[in-house]
Amino acid sequence: WLRNLTTYKAKRVAAKKGTLDLSSFMCCLPASQSLMCFSLGFELLKKKADALKMRFQLMLREIQKTKMAMSQEASDAFFSLSQAQYAAGDFRHKVIESVTTAEIRLENRIDNVAGGKLPVFTEVETSRDKAENIGLTGGGGKIQNCREKFRVLLKALVKLASLQTSFVTLDEALKVTNRRVNALDNVTIPRIDKVIDYIVRELDELEREDFVRIKKVQANKIEFAKEEAAKLEALVASGAAVPAAKHVLPSDEDIMAAFEPAADADVVF
After folding, report:
1. Spatial separation of the C-alpha atoms in residues 187 and 190, rounded to whole Å
2. Which residues are the signal sequence here (predicted)?
3. Rounded to the nearest 5°, which phi and psi values hold at 267?
4. Which pTM was predicted?
5. Using one digit for the tens of pLDDT, what is the confidence trace for 169-225?
6. Half-sphere exposure of 57 (CA within 13 A, CB side)
7. Considering only CA atoms, which of 168, 173, 158 is closest in space to residue 73?
8. C-alpha angle with apex 10: 9 to 13, nearest 5 degrees?
9. What is the domain partition of the chain in residue ranges?
10. At what angle do helices 140-183 and 22-88 cross, to 10 degrees?
């Protein structure tokens, strides 16, 4: 599972695995598993943040483009209104009296972008109003042109409202995701990495203590062998009887031999 770690700090654990024995590696296993989970979470959140940022930039350019186009559409719409009022007179009261229901309604849906829910508004044309007979006495063409211009302006306003609402929601989601990414990268993962480093240092210290202890035992054995050799040389120099050489050190003797001073004669094997 260590091969699946993709971040640099997680790869350090994989590099340490080659220098640790099995017991040392098992001590680091819980922290390494936590580091793996947080590293994978960091990678997923990083990809989500990149996707949200890309959508954020595209939406920002789309908002700017829509605003630039809407300024011209608004100018054309109000200019056509002035032309219609000049040709047909003041027809506002007729329009208000003829309208009973909304001709265009809004439909709200949710767009999913990398796990983020963005509201999207779309216009739905229910039915044509009953104001088609306005301007029969004069200026009907100008009124119809004014109606179409304002219909285009209304669609542009709906599109702009949808983009700006999604932009605000996307901006908040991007901030939350970036905070999580920074928390994992700068707080959580370094903390677990320090825990693993501490475990490795302690295990290395224990290993060095064992090595020193073994070297001390070996030095004691060598010193004991030298003392035995010196005693043997002293006996040879004095002409005394030399005992049989013992090649087994006291530390290597069988402990159970003290309880069996002589072999059992009845035992034939």
Report:
1. 6
2. none
3. -85, 120
4. 0.59
5. 888 888 998 999 998 888 888 888 888 788 778 777 877 888 888 888 888 888 888
6. 5
7. 158
8. 105
9. 2-199
10. 160
